[in-house]
Amino acid sequence: MNGAQSQITRHPARALLLLALAGVAAAIVFGFATGGRTRLALDGYLVADGTSRLFVLLINFVFLGVSNHVLAQPGPHQEHATWRFALLVAGFMVLSNLAVVSNHLLGMWVFLEATALLATPLILVGSEPGAHAAAWRYFLFSAVGLGLAALGFGCMGRGAEATNISPDLFANVLEAHAFEQTPDAWHRVGLVLLVLGFGTKLGLAPMFVWLPDTYQNATPPVTALLAAVQFNVALVALVRVIGALRAMDPTLMTNVLMAMGLTTMVMSAAGLIVTTNYKRLIAYASLNHGGVIAVGLGMGRDASYGVMLYVVSNAIIKAILFLTAGRIQQHYRTQDVRQVSGLFRALPYSGGFFMVGIFALLGLPPFGSFLGELIILSELIRLGYFGVFVGFCATLTVAFVGMARAAFPMIWGEPPSLAMQSGIQQRFHQAIPKLLLLGFLVAMGLYLPPPVTEMFRQVAHELGGP
Amino acid sequence: MNVVLTALLLALTVPLLMGSWRASLLGLAAQGALLGWLQLKHLAELNATVAIQLLDVVLLRGILAPALLWTVLAQRQAPRRNDVLAPNLLSWTAAGALVVAAFQFANAMEPDQAAVRAHVAVAAAAVLLALLVLASASTPLSQVVGLLRLENGVLLLETTLHHLPSPVLQGGLTVTYLGTVLVCRHFLHQRAAPAATPPQPAQDQRGAP
Question: Reduced to 3 DSSP states, what percent helix, strand and coil does chain A have, rounded to the nearest 5?
């Protein structure tokens, strides 16, 4: 491909990178210049609080890494080199940011649904054989899950009208009145449906079947956006619901979240043992993370800080791993773990990223995920959830064995013959996007600047923590 | 139970017994029209939200959505036969049991308000039947019908509420519904979309594309 053609196809990627840079700049201003207090805007429809500040920063930072990766990809990649792709991603990111800063639960729902509608054609981008089926599955589960969440809003509305309370869905208003309401059956049904509905977007049991297929079959940048951006936007939705409604029936909320979380962890552990596809491996690990997060959210209180550490750490890990998985597939021309070996020798940068990413995924120190899990486990003991603790530890052990057994042989050993490799060399500048993400990941485990630590504490406090 | 709700219940159940995609889409159109009829109670206080809601149910759900799907299926010369529910006694019994369960649910949730109780019962029946269709569907068309039935069921419950969202929010809800229908239409047009069933084990073992 000649230089002029390469230059033309890189314009959309450059535009995305510029958008990402603008997004990060805006996120920094929003996160640190709006002050530590909760502020409302647009008649209370938008909010600047700890949750929105932290997650706006997170998703835009991840987007910067992804857009940088798209621009730095070796050789022309037609599927990512189109204005259609750039516009879809830009729309996806704008709506994701709006969902995170939304204080109105129904408004947040609308933005989340819209991101799913834009993500569906993104999954179709590329030539993965299973992309069409995966996109359909993603869209269907997304629509049904959000439909159940909408049903939950309807039930909450019926409960509010039955008790003569205004059925406004502003999160701050709901939270303020949650202590005053005696939950009736409508509220309880609504609460369960909301958690079930938004939990579907996180891949929580019982509706998680879509996630491994989607993550496996989408192209690496799209998978990274789904795993690290949309996952966290859906998590913000769930966090808002929990924050607003937990006081209504804390026991029900805890039981539902813990049941969904633990079931998800068990199912994901089974998948990790069975799978021989490394993209699917990372997808099942993502399911596992969702389960851990749900268990932590179920406890609330002091576990909230650990949950936030875990969430942010894993968002970056997943972005690194899925982008690296794409590079590995490009080089080895396979997704089968049994046909990949000697990553360190064949692809030094990708081998390093993959190794560090797997270690972080396994919850090893010094990464933030290690500290997050430790906090969650200690809270399980302190609050007396011994059965959950045992199940949690057992599934984590199985997940550890499954991931390590599949991933470690990929990293070490002799690379396969040159005939089985693509021959495309990896250059340092192509590794810079992931290096940036990795730097932040390691920093999180070692030292967080006070303003960032304060942001985590604010979010934990909004979830019922100290 | 009034005439509209009775007609809605028929529009929810009868198409399930008819193994034709035309019947399914006509059922969706009838549901939209009847939902519009229910929304007419707000006509006295016509405002932007009510106007958008009426456009949503009558124009979008009652006419445009079924028409968009009808044209793509007619263009693709889709076979006339399409069972959203398996044509056997077990499925029909399950559907009947769910309708009964919906009425029992409404009795438990609204013991004091007879008017609302019937409305809630039909809404619950709509949702449960939609979930039954989704759980048993194996073709994209049946899954689309199940999804749109679920959307109608949710809206039916929301019509029991007196509080209306702001016009901007209502507009957003309408636009996302339209987006959902367009995505469904795209996948039906592709026709190659297999059913949303778990992948075969051989696909996982193969690994490489």
Answer: 80, 0, 20
Decide if A221 contacts A80 (C-beta within 8 A).
yes
Contacts of A96 (CB under 8 A, 6+ apart): A59, A111, A115, A229, A230, A233
Query: Comparing C-alpha atoms, which of A131, A146, A139 is closest to residue B140?
Result: A139
Bridging pattern class, strands A39-41 and A46-48: antiparallel
- Angle at which helices B65-75 and B21-39 cross, to 10°: 170
Distance (Å) from the alpha carbon of A332 to chain B's nearest alpha carbon:
9
Q: Are A150 and B154 in contact (CB under 8 A)?
A: yes
Q: Which chain A residues are closer than 8 Å to B134 by Cβ?
A: 144
Residue A191: in which H helix or E strand, if any?
helix A185-202
- Cβ–Cβ below 8 Å for A185 and B109: yes
What is the per-residue DSSP string for A268-309?
HHHHHHH--BHHHHHHHHHHHHHHHHHHHHHH-TTHHHHHHH
Q: Do A117 and B179 touch (CB under 8 A)?
A: yes
| Nearest chain A alpha carbon to B193 | A133
pLDDT in tens, chain A (466 residues): 444 444 446 888 889 999 999 999 999 889 887 767 788 888 889 999 889 999 999 999 999 999 988 887 755 456 677 889 999 999 999 999 999 999 999 999 999 999 999 999 999 987 677 889 999 999 999 999 999 999 999 999 998 887 766 677 888 888 877 766 677 889 899 999 999 999 999 999 899 999 999 999 999 999 999 999 999 999 999 999 998 888 888 999 999 999 999 999 999 999 999 999 999 999 999 999 999 999 999 988 888 889 998 999 999 999 999 999 988 988 888 899 998 888 888 888 888 889 988 988 888 887 888 889 999 999 999 999 999 999 999 999 999 999 999 999 888 877 776 655 665 666 677 677 788 888 877 777 777 778 888 888 888 888 776 6
**B129 vs B141: CA distance, rounded Å:** 16
Burial of A380 (0-12, 13-18, 19+ CB in 10 A): buried
Separation of alpha carbons A241 and A257, rounded Å: 12
Which candidate, B17, B27, B33, B5, places its Cα nearest to that of B102? B5
Helix ranges (H only) for A302-385 are 303-332, 343-346, 348-361, 368-382
d(CA A219, CA A85): 12
Contact B182, B65 (CB under 8 A): no
- The pLDDT assigned to A166 comes to 66
Point out which residues pair with A336 in neighbouring strands.
Answer: A277
Give the count of alpha carbons within 13 A of B54, CB side only: 14
The overall longest dimension of chain B from CA atoms, in Å, is: 63
- What is the Cα–Cα distance from A55 to A68, expressed in whole angstroms? 20
pLDDT for B203: 44
d(CA B175, CA A105): 17
A140 contact B CB<8A: yes
Is the minimum CB–CB distance between B101 and chain A shorter than 8 Å? no
